[in-house]
Amino acid sequence: MHLAFSKKLVFATVASALVVAAVSLNSIGQDAKKADSKAKAGAKEKPKGRLPAYYKDVVTDEQKDKIYAIQAKYEKQLDELQSQLDAVKAKQNGEIEGLLSSEQKEKIAKLKEEADAKKKSAKKGDGDKAATAAEPAKAATTDNPKKAK
Question: Any idea where the domains of the chain sit in the sequence?
């Protein structure tokens, strides 16, 4: 029995050492990649952004760079405004929630939990989602033949 425990201990130690070695080698490789990407970025920093809808096939590369520069110029201001908007929404939601009784708050919390559970199960089985969406439409057409025509 003592021999079996010793074998397990040796195996666990070797396995741990291999994991540590693998993680170390991986981080060394990532450091090299970071250095390479920093060197490339230092060569020419190109502004990045996202083109507005339908612009991709219409604008030139020079126009793309100018669009990205404009987006960068307004990014800080937009972030500040978004923070203000989020704060106002939070204040509004707090006032609305203040109108509710404790029982209503409990019911809402339960409904939110149920909705979150449905979302999680839908993400796990996206293929099932299409099948279940088709069933109510099919049932609606068979329940009332006049509406189906």
Answer: 11-45, 48-128
